[in-house]
Write a structure and sequence with these properties.
Blueprint lengths: L22 H4 L3 H8 L3 H8 L7 H16 L10 E9 L2 H14 L7 E9 L4 H17 L3 E7 L4 H12 L4 E4 L10 E3 L3 H16 L5 E5 L6 H17 L5 E4 L6 H12 L5 E6 L4 H10 L6 E5 L3 H8 L5 E4 L2 H15 L15 E3 L12
Parallel strand pairs: 1-2, 1-3, 3-4, 4-5, 6-7, 6-8, 8-9, 9-10
Antiparallel strand pairs: 10-11
Helix pairs in contact: 2-3, 2-4, 5-13, 6-7, 8-9, 10-11
Length: about 375
């Protein structure tokens, strides 16, 4: 990531963030904004008062911190202990947005502490992005600004695991979210039972394809995500038992982003048109559907994961046959509860309880996901 420019462009000028517009008018203290943004109180004060010598990155961090504090204002209560969680994720924006929304819905219900969340989000998970993730985790540990826990979605990489262990050594517990990081010292995993999901996808695929000849395309966002590898391995094992002659074609490492995923599918259908099934482990389903359509390849079964906005639309219009779903709000509630247990604010020891998979069709979409 290139360094932030010394002088912010006009659109990010500190003048936008005048004291009248931000903290004093909204009731947020400079100290709270500093804690939320990860900046010093002096830097926040310079940004709020439009003083020179602040970077565009600092302006963005202050602006985002105030927005986060605004959204989480329902958590503010008199008395009680306040815990600050850092959410560090490598995932497409459609998923990080869903996680942010789900967590902020859950924060007001958490007891007995007040819990606030800070977000450190990125879309890529390749080698350079892993280094940035490690830097982010180390910065959380060095900051000394009151992080009481980290919710982490990251590749299963020893560098990430080592950074997580360093956090624990500083008294900051890590809960892995939706995909695990082995040997990380994490106190718990919160998310889908990925092996069960992969096996379920194989069962559904075999039932819907029957004797129809052809291959099944499996797409992953990154082969380094342990949860995705669990899904893929379980899918291949179960399908080999149920339908041993069925070929599985795997494409990976486009981060689940539309452009890169489209390229993977485009390259595949340039040489073969016998794809009769798709199991999208890592997302980018709209791009997959578009490229298959351009090639006039029409799979009989198309399974995806997670009921984000794109997948809801694709499910309703018949592009997706079914979505393998887990309740993100419940996952995030459990993740936060493990941090509270670590700090002895709830009874019991932190524990991993993977969520069961739900098979969602157009006829059983959870009511709160249906627009009113």
């Amino acid at each position: 990531m290139p360094p932030a420019p010394d002088h912010p462009p006009a659109s990010l000028s500190p003048a936008r963030l005048s004291p009248a517009r931000l903290a004093p008018a909204r009731g947020h203290r400079v100290g709270d904004i500093a804690e939320q943004s990860g900046l010093s109180a002096a830097t926040v004060d310079r940004v709020l008062h439009a003083r020179p010598g602040v970077s565009a990155r600092a302006v963005r961090q202050v602006e985002q911190a105030v927005l986060d504090l605004d959204r989480q204002a329902t958590q503010v209560r008199l008395g009680g202990r306040t815990l600050v969680l850092d959410v560090v994720m490598a995932a497409p924006e459609r998923f990080t947005t869903a996680v942010r929304d789900a967590l902020e819905h859950e924060l007001p219900s958490l007891r007995p502490a007040t819990v606030r969340a800070r977000f450190r989000l990125g879309e890529h998970a390749g080698p350079e992005a892993v280094e940035r993730l490690v830097d982010t985790l180390d910065a959380v540990g060095r900051r000394g600004r009151g992080s009481q826990g980290v919710l982490l979605k990251a590749p299963d990489d020893e560098r990430v695991a080592a950074a997580a262990r360093r956090l624990l050594a500083r008294g900051i517990p890590v809960v892995t979210l939706v995909t695990d990081v082995r040997d990380s010292g994490r106190i718990a995993y919160a998310g889908l039972d990925n092996a069960a999901a992969g096996a379920t996808a194989a069962y559904l695929t075999s039932q819907w394809l029957g004797a129809l000849p052809g291959a099944v395309l499996v797409t992953l966002s990154r082969s380094t995500f342990y949860g995705e590898q669990e899904r893929r391995s379980a899918f291949e094992r179960a399908l080999a038992d149920i339908d041993p002659d069925r070929e599985v074609v795997v494409r990976s490492d486009a981060d689940g982003l539309d452009e890169g995923t489209a390229g993977l599918v485009r390259d595949l259908v340039a040489t073969r048109r016998d794809v009769v099934g798709v199991y999208s482990v890592g997302g980018g389903n709209r791009a997959i559907a578009v490229e298959l359509g351009h090639a006039e390849v029409h799979p009989r079964v198309f399974l995806g994961h997670d009921l984000d906005a794109d997948n809801l639309d694709l499910l309703r219009d018949g592009t997706l046959t079914a979505v393998l779903h887990h309740d993100l709000r419940a996952d995030l509630r459990r993740a936060c509860q493990q941090v509270l247990r670590h700090h002895h604010l709830l009874p019991g020891a932190p524990a991993s309880v993977p969520a069961p998979v739900q098979v969602i069709t157009p006829y059983n979409v959870p009511p709160r996901l249906v627009p009113r």
